[in-house]
Each structure stands twice: as structure tokens, then as C-alpha cells.
Amino acid sequence: MTMPDALLRRALELAEEFRGRDPHLPVFPRITVEELRRALGGPAPEHGEPAERVLNHLVRGAEPGIVASAGPRFFGFVIGGSLPVATAADWMTSVWDQNGPIWSTSPAASVVEEVAAQWLLEFLDLPRHCSVGFVTGGGTANFTCLAAARNHLLRQAGWDVEADGLQAAPRIHVLIGEEAHVTILTALRMVGLGERSAIRIKADDQGRMLPGELRRALAPLSGPILVCTQAGDVNSGHFDPFFDLIQAVRERAGWMHVDGAFGLWARISERLKPLTHGAELADSWTVDAHKWLNVPYDCGLAITAHPQAHMAAMGSTAAYIIPGQGRRDNFSFVPEFSRRARGFTVYAALRHLGRSGMRDLVECCCARARQMARLLAPQPGVAILNDVVLNQVLVRFRDDDDFTRAVIARVQQDGTCWLGGTTWKGNAAMRISVSNWSTTERDIELSANAILNSARIEAPG
Ligand SMILES: Cc1ncc(COP(=O)(O)O)c(C=O)c1O
Asked: CB within 8 A of 344, min separation 6: which ones?
């Protein structure tokens, strides 16, 4: 059997080979599902194989199906890409293999999350007493925050939801923006508030919730109020007008949640921070580390200004659990029990970048997004649909849905970069997100050229 150290060295060699790949390979691999199944599938193994052979087989089989989403020319979804220091810390997280829920399973994981949580609150300039849970991503962070909201709002109404459930509880009125991210709907389902009962509040042409509409919707309601806002619309990158919204929510002793999966990072930049004015007054926030902090998957943060409600909603105990007694038990803030020690990568990224490096990362991505818009906008038949205030660019071609979708497909096929499509205000659009530390001006030039070349095709039909 291969010695573990040799195996780790082999993994390093394979990692170096992967990172040294030709940078001009198509960003999205040209492989079929059948080819991948043939390479990786087969009958369930009756007998084992030597570790190094398994590693080689996995890498050779999987790599042709690996998307270069960690690279500089992947503009789909909002994926980010791992900083080298965060990847290295992630390797150590795996080597240490700490179970991260309680002090007794990993003192280091407990203190690192405690420290990273405080640094995060400072960088994002949120109230320093907030509680922070290190969860799997933005969707889980939304769920965690809404569970804390449910606890708090119902406790105010004299109801202990953790003990007595929702069956006979007072009704919580939920109000969300027209452009709320789909994971807000999932979170509403998971906390038992339901997605259909949420009142949708009209947004403006950039996707920002209209405060007057919120006030109008609140007027006839009585009882607990939960309002879900967003920092960084997943399409346009825009921000709800938090300061105006929070006034309306406070008048009703409601809870305001901010889904800032990527957009909340704007608070690190003095130039961009005004876009989030008033967000610091909210009750809870979602922000993803695996998006703009550029740590590996999976890592999101659920932050609340109500640690008691947060812990009441998430905490658990059992006879065999040894409580931290003043030391942080990470599981008090997350839905999981056993869990990866996610704080290590966040700590490494924050320490490596510092406030100034984090600001540069965010501002650079925004500058690249503006560069992309500048290169595309003057071309005939190209329209930029959003004001590019952050890292998102929405593009439409010849004002034609089918043609726009054809251009997107053509860009994906070309392979210079990868980006996806969306529907914005009823129209098909190309969606470009810049959130990777390694994207250069040259990457944007190459990608803009590829997009414009793809747009020279004739409209189908
Ligand atoms: C605004 C917003 N909220 C929530 C999410 C979900 O985050 P995750 O994919 O990390 O679960 C996303 C993901 O793109 C997002 O953009």
C-alpha cells in the first residue's frame, strides 16, 4: 500500500498538472455524459484498489468533465474562484479532518471561527455583537436567518415556536421583493412559512424594492412582520433601498433580513458602501464566502443581530455533548451537527487579503464588469440592460429573445469564456458576473471579442 505522504505528494503533482493546463482550453469541457459515465462508471467494486491507482483513475476520469469555473474567464452564476491561500487552507482542513461543531471536537476550529467572525463583522461594518454561523452557502444562510427571525418574531408574540411548532402559532406576514432570490423561497418553505403566502413587493427597473409599495402592503397587516430584502440582485447587481425600508419595518417591530450573498461584500469598499446604506440596521444578513471572498466551496455565512434567537433556532444539546462553557460551539449557529471546519479557509483569506486586499478584489471585479460593458455597449445591436453598479452586466442582442439566446449558446460553444442567460423584465438576456480575483483586463478583452464574434451570426430563421 502507498504511504500516505507519497499519496499526498501525488495529489500535489496532479494538482500542479491541472493548474498548468493550457489556459486556452475551452472553459466548459467538450465531453458527453456517456463519455464521462464510461470513464467513471462500472459495477460497484467488490474488492478495493490501491489508493494511488484510485486517485489516478479519478483524476484522469473526472478532469475531462471539469469546468474551469475557478479560472478567470468564467462569468456564469456568481461563482468566484479560490484564492491560492484559501485552497491551501482547504487542503489543511481536509488533512486535519476536524469535526467542527463543538469546542470539544476541535478547539482550533472553535477559536478560528470566533476570530474570523469578528474580522468579518468589522470588514462588513455590521454590529459587533452579531452572531455568525459558518454554513454551506447562501441558501442555507437564508434558511438559518429566517429560522432565527421566526423564533424572535413569535417570541415577541408570546409563542415558543421551537417548543410548540407552527401549527397553532400566530401568523407571520412575509414580504419579499419581486426579484428575491429563489433560495429565499426555499428557505420560506423550510421554515414552514410557505412560499405562496409571501407578499411580493414591486421593484423598479433595476430590481430595487419600492419603499412606497412596501408601506402600502404593510398598512392593512397586523401581527409579526418579516421583510426579506437583497444586497446584490442576482441579475442586475442592484441593492434594495435599505434605509427607507428599515424605517417601515421598525415601525411595525418587524424583522428585516438582507440576502447579500455576493452584494454585501460591497461594504468593504468606501466607494461602493453607500449602495448598502441602512443595511447595517437590519436584523440578519446572508453573505457567501465562496462567492466574493474567493474561498473554495462550500462556505456561506448566516449573521444575525439577535444571537439569542439565532441560538434558540439552531442550537441543540444532548447528554453526551460537552458544552463549550464560554468557548464557542460552532454548531450553535448552524443547522448541521457534524460539519466541516469551514472557518479555516475564511480565516486564511481574510488574513491574506486584509481589509485593503479585500477592497481591491471587490473593486477590481467591478472595474472589469464596467470594462466589459464599455467594450460591448457601442456595438450595433447590443444593449446593456442594467446600470452596472457592481459586478453584473446584462446584455441583450438585436432586442430579440431568440437571437440573444443563440449568442449565449454560441459563446458557450466557442469556449473562450463561459456565461449564462436569464430573463430580465420579461426579456432574454446574457448574464455576465465578474467575481474572480484572477480576472484581468486582458481576459475581459478576449471575452468581449468572443461575445462580439458570436453576435455576428445571423438571427435564426
Ligand atoms: C442573492 C443570492 N442569494 C442566495 C444565493 C444562494 O447562494 P448559494 O448558491 O451559496 O446557496 C445566491 C446565489 O447565487 C444569490 O445570488
From this structure: 89, 90, 92, 93, 96, 109, 112
Question: Are residues 323 and 361 located together in one domain of the fold?
Answer: no
Q: What is the Cα–Cα distance from 440 to 450, expressed in whole angstroms?
A: 15
Question: For atom 5 of ligand 1, which residue has the closest CA?
Answer: 138
Q: Which residue in 24, 22, 84, 20 sits closest to 442, CA to CA?
A: 24
Residues touching ligand 1 (Cβ under 6 Å) are 77-78, 137-139, 181, 183, 230, 232, 234, 259, 261-262, 288, 300
pTM of the model: 0.96
Q: Of 349, 374, 400, which residue constitutes the final position of a domain?
A: 349
- On the question of pLDDT at 40 being above 50, the answer is yes
Query: How much helix, strand and coil, in percent to the nearest 5, is found in the chain?
Result: 45, 15, 40
Cell of 296: 473554495
Tell how far the Cα of 297 is from the centroid of ligand 1, in angstroms: 12
Query: Which residue is associated with the grid cell 455583537?
Result: 129
Domain count, the chain: 3
DSSP code string of 146-172: HHHHHHHHHHHTT--HHHH-STTSPPP
Shared domain check, 412 and 282: no
Is 138 inside a domain boundary? yes
Claim to verify: residue 344 and residue 371 sit in the same structural domain: no
Q: DSSP state, 227?
A: E
Number of Cβ within a 10 Å radius of residue 128: 9
**pLDDT, averaged across the chain:** 96
Residue 1 has pLDDT above 60, yes or no: no
